[in-house]
Specification:
A 5-stranded antiparallel beta sheet has the order 1-7-6-5-4, with no helix packed on it. Strands 8-9-10-11 form a 4-stranded antiparallel beta sheet, with no helix packed on it. The protein has a 4-stranded antiparallel beta sheet with strand order 12-13-14-15, with no helix packed on it. It is mainly β and about 280 residues long. It has no helices and 26 strands. The chain has a domain of about 80 residues.
Length: about 280
């Protein structure tokens, strides 16, 4: 159910291209002839950014999920006054407009959002004004309504959520070594094997072979360069090679060749510009 609509302004810019022609002439003493040549200059479009509609609420530490119909669902987060939100809104690429949709049942930021095979969106954990939360809820794109589902066994925030090949959702870390699985068919959470290191603000990437690679983050001993792999078949974690740099708040991207590109983050020397492949 769409509750309210706000319109936003968008701006567009137009560019002009110009071409110039030049003429040359040649002459001789006994006979004269003239020839004309022309040259044109072309401009190459440079990829850039275009302003689109503003959200209805300024927020950070929220989530954004692409729905089956192409719209984008933004949920929760923290406002400019450091208050936590339960508000959600939808972005429509065809119009550039944001429209508010149903509120979540709980305020939360630093949570995760996973789009399930049936098109619904699972939001799990996070933090509110007072503490970490273990609650989870589902967004139905057809009705715009959020419904509570099973709560996690532990309160996770600053964690990761990964979709496995079997459709289960793996939540890992968030100051803990613990991990658990959400089953969309039953709406329940089941604990699985613990990671080797407690970590938060790490990354998690689902690999082509179905395993999940977790990298870096921050733990009780400080910043981490360790990495480990989760095997969905056994429910166990295995240590793999360490990164060259200790980092958290970094990113991890799966490339077309199957490699994982880790970039930036924050480490013992401050902000990082380094990048490395797995």
């Amino acid at each position: 159910q769409i509750t309210s609509t706000s319109s936003s302004s968008s701006s567009s810019s137009s560019s002009t291209s110009s071409s110039s022609s030049s003429t040359t002439s040649s002459s001789s003493s006994t006979s004269s002839s003239s020839s004309t040549t022309s040259s044109s200059s072309t401009t190459t479009a440079v990829p850039g950014w275009t302003i689109t509609g503003n959200m209805n609420f300024a927020r950070y530490s929220h989530t954004a999920s692409t729905l089956a119909n192409g719209s984008v669902l933004v949920a929760g987060g923290v406002g400019s006054d450091n208050g936590y939100f339960n508000t959600t809104e939808l972005y429509y690429p065809s119009t550039g407009i944001w429209t508010t949709t149903g509120n979540m049942n709980f305020i939360r930021g630093y949570h995760t959002a996973s789009t399930l095979a049936n098109g619904s969106v699972l939001v799990a954990g996070g933090s509110n004004d007072a503490s970490f939360v273990n609650t989870a809820e589902l967004y139905n794109p057809l009705t715009g309504i959020w419904t509570s589902t099973g709560s996690m066994n532990a309160a996770h925030a600053y964690h990761t959520a990964s979709t496995l090949g079997n459709g289960l959702i793996l939540v890992a870390g968030g100051s803990y070594i613990s991990a658990e699985l959400y089953n969309p068919s039953t709406g329940t959470w089941t604990t699985t094997g613990n990671m080797s290191f407690a970590r938060e603000f790490h990354t998690a990437s689902t690999l082509a072979n179905g395993s999940v690679l977790v990298t870096g983050g921050s733990g009780s001993a400080g910043y981490l360069n360790s990495a480990e792999l989760y095997n969905p078949s056994t429910g166990t974690w295995t240590i793999t090679g360490n990164m060259s740099a200790k980092r958290y708040y970094h990113t991890a991207s799966i490339l077309a060749n199957g490699k994982i590109l880790v970039t930036g983050g924050y480490g013992s020397t401050g902000s990082l510009n380094s990048a490395e492949f797995y």
